[in-house]
């Protein structure tokens, strides 16, 4: 199988879609920086939105295929809003959350566990567990793996004492403990290949927890310009 390149693209309304690039077109897109805005023309639409049937990259029913004949032009940002879709902790803990889709969460770090195994362990993937809480005291158990582990461990070591907010973007609910034990326990949130995290994040409109942001969104109104061009940002 040839090399492929995958993106999560988002439009100015916050709708995310999985886009894939096959080998002949990789040179056209591999320098596209994360967080940039671009107008992409000549894309193909596919009803297949999966790499693995249990591991979707977005909830969109379709996927974009970016061929070598596509054209791409950088544009000015269409909005400065964030593109996080925060899940409520109680929804994740319910045992009925769809584990096939990525998830965004925001909360306060409660406990950070031990980094393991030792760095000199041969070919062993390192991990670090931690728990996060929302403002209602609901708690989720999380694990960072591989590259995310090293970055998390370093950034955590540089944070001064005190409450630390964390934003998890494109993470995953790996399995419900309730599913296997029959007990109504928290679910495990697992960082995957496309995940990001931000300690004490400073994004416009991001603060509190998902409940607080829901209440704020209900009291605000945004008027957006309408444009039928395919302008997208790389999430």
Automatic annotation (TrEMBL):
Residues 219-235 have a biased composition (Acidic residues). InterPro entries: NA-bd_OB-fold (IPR012340), RFA1B/D_OB_1st (IPR003871). Pfam families: DUF223. Residues 209-235 are annotated as: Disordered. Residues 4-48 form the Replication protein A 70 kDa DNA-binding subunit B/D first OB fold domain. This is Replication protein A 70 kDa DNA-binding subunit B/D first OB fold domain-containing protein. It comes from the Eukaryota.
């Amino acid at each position: 199988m040839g090399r492929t390149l995958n993106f999560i693209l988002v439009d100015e309304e916050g709708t995310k879609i999985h886009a894939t690039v096959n080998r002949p077109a990789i040179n056209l897109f591999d320098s596209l920086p994360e967080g940039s805005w671009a107008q992409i023309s000549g894309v193909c639409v596919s009803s297949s939105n999966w790499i693995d049937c249990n591991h979707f990259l977005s909830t969109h029913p379709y996927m974009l295929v970016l061929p070598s004949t596509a054209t791409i032009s950088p544009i000015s940002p269409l909005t400065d809003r964030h593109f996080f879709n925060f899940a409520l902790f109680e929804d994740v803990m319910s045992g009925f959350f769809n584990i096939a889709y990525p998830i965004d969460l925001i909360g306060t770090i409660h406990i950070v566990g031990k980094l393991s195994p030792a760095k000199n362990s041969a070919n062993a993937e390192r991990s670090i567990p931690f728990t996060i809480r929302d403002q209602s005291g609901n708690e989720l158990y999380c694990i960072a793996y591989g590259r995310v582990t090293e970055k998390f461990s370093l950034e955590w070591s540089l944070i001064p004492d005190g409450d630390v907010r964390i934003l998890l973007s494109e993470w995953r609910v790996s399995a419900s403990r309730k599913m296997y034990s029959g007990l109504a326990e928290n679910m495990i949130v697992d960082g995957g290949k496309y995940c990001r995290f931000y300690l004490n994040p400073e994004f416009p409109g991001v603060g509190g927890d998902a409940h607080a942001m829901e209440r704020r969104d209900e009291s605000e109104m945004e008027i957006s310009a309408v444009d039928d061009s395919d302008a997208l940002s790389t999430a």
